[in-house]
Amino acid sequence: MDFKHRLPGWLAASFVIFVTAGWTFWGIAELYYEGWGLPFPEPLAYLIPGVACLIFTLLALRWPRLGGWVLIGSGSLFTIWWWNLTARRAGGLTWQIVLGLFPISGLLIVSGVLFLLEGRYRRQLRIDGWMPHANWLRRNLSYLIAIGIPLSIIIGVSAFQLPGILSRYDDGDYGTRLIEGNGITLIWAPSGPGWNWRQEWGGFPSWASLSLYGRSPIGLDDKWKLPTSADDMSATGLCAYLTADGLSLAETSQSIWRMPTVDELVRSLGRDGKNAGCVWSGEEGQLTCAVTPDKDTPLWNPSSPPIYYWAADELNAKDAYYVSYNGWVNTQPKTFGNPRHGYRCVREP
To answer: Of 25, 170, 196, 235, whose CA is between 20 and 30 Å from 62?
Structure first.
């Protein structure tokens, strides 16, 4: 009978610790992947879901009734928001998507219900004269596990990721660069409007804004929401207005620089100052490379925020391709612009 009454509490603690561990792993991994290079404290934003789950966990372990209702409420709101966002992006929900989302969203609701049962059980124990265990370790074991698991994840991921990040190849030259190898020889724009021109709002231009830069009125403002195509990127794209030295933008199209294609970006990826030998099959996903590329010079600036480069190619009327520094090709809506999606213009030697 004691096992039956204690089971909901054990399950609740296990579920919520599992969710916290999942979000902690995602947060610290994304901090080193997407967040590294962003101005401090912006990278810490990736840890917010894990920290929030940990707070909810500790709250529920201490006061299961209060924590249970908090988990039910916050879990329900988050599940509705996240599932709705995923459904819009994916064009609907499938069983595969639901099963993938439930463990780190819907499981919070289940944990909350189980903590309510645990709260009822603890109240009865107090009525019966129950006292906490005299041994400090036994008394606080659940808290130590709840904190220890995400802390171990942070330490483990950091120990794995930091050595590679801190040893990235950086020759300090962020000017015009000739990059050749793997069947591609191109000149890449220097720092300035042709390479990761950060906007006042903190991010970088969307694919749509870049492609319509030359459309009257010339500029990037308010063009992210307009329909555009690969033809626009070629004719009125920002790169076409870049002056020969790559340091400024002209009032008329110069037709010297252009946006690189997916294949050109892929074949120019490198590591430790050498070509990574990547090739693109024409599909989204991970590339086939001789070595895993990294965010190294001369193609990237290791200390700058962007980890993706927009390509000139489009998937359809709404989405365009981008290439990540570590050897992936994916697509996103042309309207997206953020601190991680950069670009770099190219020209022929």
So the answer is: 25
